[in-house]
Sequence to fold (246 residues):
Amino acid sequence: MTQIKHIVEQIDQVLKMAARYSVMSVNINIQRNVIEMINNASSKNIINLEKSIRKNDDFLSNLFKSSDISFKFFKSLLQFMVYMKENNAEEAWNRLIEAQNLLSLSVQINPSQFGFDKYIKELDDYERLLFPKQVFLSPAYYSDNLECTICNNSLFKCNHITGQLYSGKICQLRITKLNLDHIAIVDDPLDKRRRVTSTEQEDYTYENTITLERTPMTHKEIEQSKNDGGKTKGFKAMVIHRNEEL
Ligand SMILES: [Zn+2]
Fold:
């Protein structure tokens, strides 16, 4: 039991350190080092998680899984800050959204952890203050196969609750045999990485929706635009499917 207490204290220490250095003004090299430390702690934690699952220790399995999500959250948050400082705002956006997604998962799993309420507001503020307003997309799929990641049965035939921990595993929705129906423009998508990434401009360029950099259109794109008589404006978009099982 004392060994477990020691492991839990170590996890707590790394998370407290991660929280301390997840502030924009902190030196970029220090933040890179902290990301490395989180990576190390996270690998050890995964080994402990696998051990606990093998031993059927539900309590410890859930504890280590919950820590895993917290480590991933701080890693994404720190990577967001590092990318901003490296003048790579598009990658920073992806990491920020990743951090938001992990945060909402964390809150679902363990609502009382690490004063996470503070981070929900903080991450929303970063999105609102540091980036131009984005246009989000939501692909609508239909599928006959909605599976539970815990028991692999049809979602309608099991009692597991999505977003809850079961013996160190998170119950998620697994969608197989996907068919894309249509793509809609929405205000509040499931994943904000799905968005319009650049828009066609009058001067035959595409303007990046985050950096506002303009890149010349290709000959083919200019031809298409001329044939259309400039009636519709083209855009490029990112429509990734969110299929990571955590
Ligand atoms: Zn199930």
Observations:
- Residues 148, 150-151, 153, 158, 160 surround zinc ion (CB under 6 Å).
- The radius of gyration is 21 Å.
